[in-house]
Amino acid sequence: MERKEVLWEQLKKKGLSDTEIEEKMQQKLDEVGGLLTEEGALTIIASELGITEEQEYLRIADLTDGMSNVNIIGRVLGYTEPREFERSDGSKGAVSNVIIADKTGKTALTLWDHEVRLTEQIKRGDILKIIDGITRQGRRGIQIQIGRGKVLLNPKDDPRIEEIPPLSELARRPTERKPIADLQEGDKFCEVRATIAKLYNIRFYEACPECYKRVIFKNNVFYCPNCKKKVDRKRIMIFEAGLDDCTGFIRASFFDRKAEYILQKTTSEAYYKVKDYLNKGYDVRSAQRQYITEYHMGLLGGEVLISGDVTYNEYTGLTFNVRELRELDILEECYTLLEGLA
Q1: pTM
Q2: Can you list the domains of the chain with their CATH numbers?
């Protein structure tokens, strides 16, 4: 739901009809001579009626980029272990992401510095309520940050708690198993079981830790053009391999933690191994290939069970962007095969 629609619904709950809202919105637009958007006009009207965003019981699907005073509630699906980093001024920082979900969707709550202590108190299935949070556009969609707000663990007085499905239901993946031959550009939530038939390359880039866009280095600091601010860079690793399942072949891209998982190397370990080859006189592409050849040829012939979505690149064709890797459960695969034959 777009923010304009959220505001519209808030005003209707105050007793205004669609016609009355339309008239008030047009009046505000006329007052400022077209220097205001419809969303801005509705925001002013809502404020005049005493409606603030923190009073609205939002759902995750209602979140849009740039919101403030966000009041949201969700069940914990999991979280990443806090990762420490060093800022450009030499000070230490930490970051972690908590994945929360409600009946409308899921999102990440990004924790910074002392906020990461929350991961010591929570477990999967807990309920979190974020009060006065803010939203930002991240690489995987809208993310929430606490900002100057606060987080309540397992609150009892919120009517949305009853709406949140149990963990077992939220944790189910809406994926569809597909043979590679049936994959098409735009497919999402696809699951593929395949054999690693080719190892392509490994590469790295310096990214913004909030939006994961590429950063630039100028005036001795890292700057994110997307967030328009100075940031503490995060080094990202991308590994690409060719997968075959007997019906077809496709290039698969493993990003960040997925790359670390399949290679069983941290980004830092792989980066400095490649850098060693560069120091020996290899060019970039040759250094990457030599690293793959020396350390990861054992991946060839191995089976993977992955889920993700499919995009198209004019240079490489269809690419499977891996969102999740699962351990291959042979017993479960047998049951799946038998169900297909029934």
Answers
A1: 0.56
A2: 1-51 (no CATH), 55-170 (2.40.50.140), 176-341 (2.40.50.140)
